[in-house]
Amino acid sequence: MRSRAELLLLLLLAGCGVAGRDQSAGTRVATRPAVAEPVKVGDPYMVRGIAYHPADVRDYDEVGWASWYGEEAKGNRTSNGERFDPDAISAAHTTLPMPSYVEVTALETGRTILVRINDRGPFSRRKLIDLSRGAARQLGIEGHGNAAVRVRRVDPTAGEQRTLTRGGKVDERPRIAPEQLAMLRRRLAARPDRALAPVGEGAPAVIRSGFQRAFVQVGAFASRANAERLAASLGGLASAAGGYWRVRLGPYDPTAARRSLADVVAKGYRDAAIVGEAIN
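== Endolytic peptidoglycan transglycosylase RlpA ==
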């Protein structure tokens, strides 16, 4: 049997083992800027003929265009296996690890928020990041189809990481100074793909005269289940194409295709486009 002194020593050691915890919540108090959370980088993949190479780039800092998505994807599995919550402060990126954390700055206003990357996308050369509806709302761009942004990878505190992982939001970062904001806008204007900026996106597409029937392609997905679910909701068809699943509506004549495209864009599918097929 242990002596009273031995028992006292064991109790003291046990007390040391819980030091640094919030006794009321039973969770560790943040003392380091990182959380031990499984991180997935992923293998190279291809969508719509474009190859993507995920990488753990610690100093990632880019400017480009952001879009956002909401109810149409609610409950779907994200690329790291979570359920998509449109009101969480999250985003999709084609190459950054999942999860990773970025500061997103609206180049129109200088507002900056912290966002958690937990999905892949947007699969469009015109887009840099796809924000959740909650992130778009916090950034102040919910009323825009697209917005010019800066995306910079950061290492937030453990508390901030936990908040975002649980679906909450953290306070906005300080606004970017006007001179730095002007520099970021010049960076965007100097990009070689600046002509691809999605200004006026969703306008009726022009069908080349050689095509006699047209389809509205709503999007392409790595998940067959997600593609088939969307196709069923829109009355379209999901089909395999080069390692991904595309969702198309049609076929239509050119006038009907333009009407269908306008309807699809109005529902939030801003990357939809008219594609044509020749009839042999």
